[in-house]
Design a protein that fits this description.
Elements (H helix, E strand, L loop, with lengths): L4 E4 L4 E5 L9 H8 L8 E3 L13 E3 L12 H24 L3 H4 L9 H24 L1
Parallel strand pairs: 3-4
Antiparallel strand pairs: 1-2
């Protein structure tokens, strides 16, 4: 099973959750078929699984690959480092969602749309924990 998440970096909250798809479905295909509309002028840091996904009026950044037999320029290396440092925050959010063990283990329930409900609850619990954590610090 697979879902795509969109994360707000500043708040470390899940802002969008796609439907649940079969595990072999490509990430870009999920985005194309779901048809999520981004606000104009927003910044999208995308993984290499989304190569070719370019929404209109959105600034997209993707890590650059090292050309065969060459090296990346210092500017490209710096950009890749910046993207990787933000990607770590996204991975932490995904790990926070996977604290609910039902999400990371093999899901054997065959009830229709129950897998979507489980993922929504796991994302909601993550957002709730995160909101409590940051409100307690203030």
């Amino acid at each position: 099973m697979k879902n795509n998440l969109m994360v707000a970096i500043e708040e470390r909250l899940v802002r969008y959750l796609s439907q649940t798809w079969a595990g072999r479905t490509h990430d870009k295909r999920i985005c194309d078929e779901e048809g999520y509309r981004f606000p104009p002028g927003c910044v999208l840091l995308k993984d290499t699984g989304f190569q070719g996904f370019e929404p209109e009026r959105v600034y997209t950044y993707q890590p650059k690959k090292t050309p065969r037999g060459q090296e990346l320029s210092p500017a490209d290396q710096a950009e890749n480092t910046m993207i990787a440092s933000i990607r770590i925050l996204v991975e932490h959010v995904i790990a926070g969602v996977k604290r609910c063990r039902i999400v990371r283990d093999i899901f054997r329930n065959t009830t229709a749309h129950f897998d979507d409900l489980v993922m929504e609850i796991a994302c909601g619990l993550h957002n709730f924990r995160t909101a409590l954590r940051y409100n307690a610090c203030e």
